[in-house]
Amino acid sequence: MRPISRPKAMKTTENNKKRIALFASGSGSNVFNIINYFEGSEIVEVTIVLSNKKNAGALVHAEKANIKALPFNRHDFFESNNVLRLLKSEQIDYIILAGFLWKIPENLISNFENKILNIHPSLLPKYGGKGMFGRHVHESVLANKEKETGITIHLVNEKYDDGKIIKQATCSIDESETLLSLQEKISKLEKENFPITIEQFITKK
Ligand code: GAR
Q1: Which residues are CB-neighbours of 113 under 8 A, at least 6 positions away?
Q2: Ligand 1 pocket, CB under 6 A
Q3: Based on CB atoms within 10 Å of each CB, which residue in 23, 134, 182, 193 is the most buried?
Q4: pTM of the model
């Protein structure tokens, strides 16, 4: 794995900040929001951002914020302990999946038990499982003429979208709702709720 940005000049292992790793596959608007929220925090440090896509916007956001940003491949993630070793060497306390679309392998689940959070753009258990991500979720919600949808922040276990629910937030669906307007509503809910839920989870509030 080739670093695409330099790590921060000073690590903060000498203080009590919790060190989080963000995993993302896409444009990274949640990564951007989480980085901004914890900028200057005395509780949480975004230590590293990792992606299975080397051109992911999430890596660019991290790089701009001077946070270590690395792509990884299938071998690193599924067929070796490369990603796990990296997380250990960075002394990561929590993993946050912010639009990350690969299933989490057993080596990470067992080493970070109850310490991996995911955000999903529906009210789980509805519209979860394999293939249910991003716009596919919203298209199904609209096709089924749901009156309400929302977001779920949950612990990650070995199944897709299945772990204990930590927080849900809802929005109504109007008669005139379009894919775009629904995406905007969900994005707003994610930005309002994800960073603060991470913080409350980490501080056990
Ligand atoms: C978010 O809506 C997130 O809930 C979703 O991917 C999007 C990523 O957007 N995650 C899933 O669908 C996970 N199953 P972003 O790259 O702009 O943060």
Answers
A1: none
A2: 24, 26-30, 98-99, 119-121, 133-134, 190
A3: 23
A4: 0.92
